[in-house]
## 1
Amino acid sequence: MTRLQGLHHLRMERSVLPYSVLSLLGFAARVLFLHLTGTWGTVINNDAHEYNQIASSILAGYGFAVGPGQPTAFRPLGYPYFLAALYGLCGRSVAVVQLAQALLGALSVLPTYALTRRLFGSAPALVAGIGVALHPILLYLTALITADVLGIGLQMLLLWIAFRATTASDAQVGWWVVFGVVATLSTLVRPEMSLLPWLLALGYCVSRGCTAGRIKRLLITCVACTVLALLPTFARNAVHLGVLSPFPTEGGVTFWGGNNPMASGGWTMPSPGSWQDASPPPAGVHGWPDLPERESQTRFYRAALTWIRENPGEALALVPRKLARSWTLTYGDEARSETLPPIAHVANLVFGACALVGIVLAAWSQRRDLWVFLAPLAIWIVKTVVFYGSTRLTASVLPIACMLAAHAGVSGVRWVSRIVPRRQAGA
């Protein structure tokens, strides 16, 4: 081996080392969390039962249904098929799902580190990577049978691919194809992500300017992503339920849950006690069993819109409460309360403040790459304002918050390291 080859291998090892260490740290932290909290192999969330029903129906050949002859459009397509694939390969086991999610959560560290390194440098990238690897909320999500971990991983991968495809001089058509595939998968897991390609394209054009050719390429990519992402859900709804809609039907109860007379910023479970109109929903979130699924959810939408129209002041007053609740350590369901030590709440608020300082510093330095952060943050804000605030909804932007907080923290340390010696020298 020549000296030049040796230097090349040394550089490769150094570049791969932080990715390896951070991903192993993230995986180990998640597995350790499951073990120490006693959640390994245990179902601890209410959504898990329905996700498991749908996954089992898929494997049994009944299609996207909660049982034989019971098709449903309530949930997005992506996560139940992910569960079905795991169960088909490894058998039905909660522990297998949690282990797979621990791996996915650990892998989400990689695009976070890569993106932060390209934007802010190696030191903030290392801090951000450690933050995503060890953030308590992201560890907690590993134990839940929900789409959160899968959705967050796909979102961060999509952001890195978007940045790579739009900034690298050697970006080829293949990068745009990969972007389209990941955007489609991300939307199948979390429907609101259908907005992300459009917001990324808009942010990129505003911040950097676009030629006619680049605008055409971005427009084709966005249209293709939207069509490919929404077509499977549209086909499912049309074939199984006779409904012409590209979205799941869970939006109705989600919208009502955050916009009703009992709401105070979080989500209200529909019940005879919380439903103010006649004929309360006997099936809870699934509404009225005697109605078709779409009509049941339409009734939720109608009730929420009627309340907003009749009480515009109260509806507007909910907006700051939703946003405040979204960045506090609380359940979305207002009927549940979390008992955590005060230090946890203080640490969470400090973390949020650091992230806010990070985005201010990035804007102050006139960075043209803010579109990478603003697109997912805009989706989170809109979703919170329209629906409700909760820690779990905010989890989707935690990796971005880690990136921004790392930028603020490292910038602060560097500023102090420059100022203190000057003052000492002046004294």
## 2
Amino acid sequence: MMKPFALTLLLAGAVMCCGCVTNEDVLVPRPCSQMRDVDVPTRFTFDAMQSFDFADMTTKERFAVHYFRGKAPFDRLIDFYRKNMPVHGWRLRQEVGSRGLKTLYFKKGNPESSKTGGSTGIVAVFSTDGTVGSIQISRIEQ
């Protein structure tokens, strides 16, 4: 009598645990080859046609705007950047937006110091119907 009940509990627990997080929900970071200190989820691919990168020789500033395309739950992608940017020294300064478009503003380094310079990073997440269509990563290095 006890064995069928124990087996039922075990199976119910396994279903509940396995149903919580699927492979589709997990966003695995990988370094962005264009910006080594910014991770991009493995499911997202670089869109070279929309992206650009240039340097101002007068001010010595570098500007980059890179687009990545893929699919992931909107909220999970926002959490991905909240957690992964600080790993590389970025500090979240501000979040703007709501469902459909959210922009996260990050800072890194000390722009007042001429030795270390500083960077401003902006991650914009665009969504249609709750899944992400594209990520825009902008960066200014001083």
## 3
Amino acid sequence: MPPLLLILDEWIFHHLEGQAGPERQEEAIRLLEEIQRRCDQIAWRPQTPWARKAYKLMNKQEPVVRIASKLLHGLLRDSNKGRIITVSTDLPPEVHSKIPEDDRYLVEICLSARDALLVTTDQKLYEVIAPHIRRVQLLDDFLKTYGLRP
């Protein structure tokens, strides 16, 4: 089975930092460990808000967050685990205006990496893009299909 290419919305940083509670923090760390174990990949683009948050995570002092940051950065630096998407695909006009400006780059990455699955916690974003992008899933549903939740 080919590796799964994932675009993790910015929720990953909130969860890794513990902002969504200790259970979500532990779950986010388990997700990264599972991505590593399965040889799946994280798609990302440098010079984006997502990349800046990833690098900012490295400056956190809390021990659990530092461990999580090292795990994430290890995945992103490994060419077998992190896939840098540099080509930009423009959003279809009927979708562009409906997507909040802060989220457009994530959807562009998803369209550029045609085989990627965008995982989001943003219900509104999901509802806007799901009719146009077939590979988008809400986090709770994804974690069930990925085997991290019953």
## 4
Amino acid sequence: MLDVKKVYHLMGEQTIPIFLSAIQFQPWVHHYLLATKKTEYSANYVVKALQDRQISAEVRLIGAENAAVSFSEFFDVLTASPYGMRMGVIPVYIAYEMRTCLDRTVICMKNKEIRLTGEAFNNISADPASYTFCIEEGTSERNDYVSTVINRFGTDDVMSYANRCSKAVSLMQTWFRGLPKFARTHMFEYGSEKTETGKKLFRFRRKLLMYDLNPHEFLFEYIPEVFGCFDYSELAVRVSEFADSEEAFIPDFRKYMISAVRKCFGGNIGGSLFTLMKDWYERLSDAAKKNIFDADTNAVLRFIASNTVYDDDYVISSLAKAVTMLAIEDWSDETADIFIGDIKRIISAAENYDAAGSDGNISLSIDIGGTKYEKNLADAEISAIAETALNNIEDILEDYGDAITAQERISVLLRILREEIDRM
């Protein structure tokens, strides 16, 4: 029985009327319609006419099994005597004959594999010599391998792909593009130790981001080479393991960073990162806790002092965001190295603050609205830009003159100071 949906899927709903109009005056189709007393020209009747016409076995598509055949050969035979098909009807016939072997049919344009679509058939009609196709015989192991890929990265019930190999590759690429940025681009693996990703595996990840891949070449030549495995059963396992590894990359990386940051804070095997950082903070002098450091150091000290969540995944993610202004998912290998360097610098700055002594420092203690602010900062020279900002503030206050009182001037400056301290 003819599956009309498959024909419409291959040809495209909008192109069916074009083909019908091209063949409706074919004598043998007209004869068939009269003989069966059909007065409508529908896809069902046209394809049934093709089927009943008994096209010679020499031009049946099965002749292309396991060997690439140019479409021009079929067009030459089918347009000549005794068939005399018009160009428009040939794609209908080809689509109909392909219905039972869509998952094994490979169409190429100048050796580049393309998807089976209505547009593809239109292009084939315009230039059949540039297109070839073959029907792969396949093996049960090979088919199981393709099914494993499809089921690992999606489902096997999607109707948008006639060829299952194209579907498998498309699902794999869609899955990979949906991973976090760092998982797609990392050049190192982060387990108990940091190790460099193999060049083949790194190129494989980059390949998955490319467009216009050749599905059969990718599945049956490129992937086996990447994993060094040509047994399809084992290869299916390797591909699934690769997917599991990529999906676990961010969680595994967090574990690696938790261990690395623990070492920075002098941690041993036991204890959580939360308690380790809290203990470290408590050991700092009050002067260090009140000091105004650079933005990164202030952010880390503020986070450690205020955090009440024990979960180490949350701690490392929040710490990473505070220092780098990026979520771990958006990092790179270089960001990871910079982050560890920054943590070591921050720890050193806080621990060594007392050794610097109090000479040349300003101690600030203010109670505003019941909230007590105590900070230390270095009485150092300010930059040229900061000097300009100071002059602007002084000019603005001077411009107001007696319009605001001295107390109001001080109140304005204290509010600015409080907002700056709150942001530290």
